[in-house]
Amino acid sequence: MRVAIPIRKKRVNRSFAGTFWMFVFLAAVAAFMALPLVYAINAAFKPLDEIFLFPPTLFVRHPTTSNFIDLMTLLGQSWVPFSRYIFNTFFITGMGVVGHVLLASAAAYPLAKHKFPGSKLIFTVVVLSLMFTPQVTAIPNYMVMSWIGLIDTYWAVIVPAFAFSLGLYLMKQFMEQIPDALLESAKIDGANEYRIFWQIVMPNVKPAWLTLVILLFQMLWGTDGNGFIYSEQLKTLHYASNQIIFGGIARAGVGSAVALILMSVPIALFVVSQSRIIETMTTSGMKD
Amino acid sequence: MSTIDTPSQTSVTVAAGKPAVKTTSWWEIKWKEIKAQKHSYILMSPYMLLFAVFTVLPVVMSVIISFTYFNMLEFPRFIGWQNYSRLFLEDDVFLIAIKNTILFAVITGPLSYMACFVFAWIINDLRPKLRAVMTLIFYAPSISGNVYFLWQMIFSGDRYGIANGFLIKMGVLLDPIQWLKTEQYIMPIIILVQLWLSLGTGFLAFIAGLQTVDKTLYEAGAVDGIKNRWQELWYITLPSMKPQLMFGAVIQITSSLAIADVSIYLAGFPSVNYAAETIVTHLIDFGTIRFEMGYASAIATVLFTLMVGTNLVVQRLLRRVGE
Question: By its UniProt entry, which InterPro entries does this protein fall under (chain B) (predicted)?
Answer without folding.
Answer: ABC_transporter_permease, MetI-like, MetI-like_sf
